[in-house]
Design brief:
This protein has 123 residues and is mostly helical. The chain has one domain. It is built from four helices and no strands. Helix 2 crosses helix 4 and helix 3 packs across helix 4.
Length: 123
């Protein structure tokens, strides 16, 4: 049997596919919607964000520094093994990396905010 590139098969079908997503595994993550060409870049972004998950890091600042975020996006572009790097100009590759990084940081900030909000509750 041929291994599929997508999580739900070779083609996406709307609305059936969305009903098949397990609710316990689906926590506002849309990574499976990224194009196949960007999966390596997304893995690099997640790895960088994993290293920044500590109190007082850039990711959890109230207003993250724009220069630091741009520097991180540049590192993502350098470390990502994108096969289509020649087709995409460096300017657009950097912009895409910055968007993916900001999206991942926003997801993790919200996850942490919800976790801290629910820590004091007793069920």
């Amino acid at each position: 049997m041929k291994k599929s590139n997508y999580a739900k098969g070779n083609c996406m079908t709307f609305p059936l596919e969305l009903t098949e997503v397990n609710q316990e595994n689906y926590v506002m993550r849309n990574d499976y919607l990224y194009p196949l060409q960007l999966r390596n870049m997304q893995a690099t972004v997640q790895e960088m964000c994993d290293r920044m998950e500590y109190d007082g890091s850039l990711m959890y600042d109230e207003y993250p520094d724009k220069v630091c975020v741009e520097r991180l996006a540049r590192k993502v572009c350098e470390n990502a093994n994108c096969k289509h790097r020649e087709e995409i100009s460096n300017r657009w590759m950097h912009a895409l990396a910055q968007i993916m990084l900001c999206n991942e940081m926003a997801f993790r900030r919200e996850r942490r905010r919800c976790h801290k909000r629910n820590m004091g509750r007793s069920y």
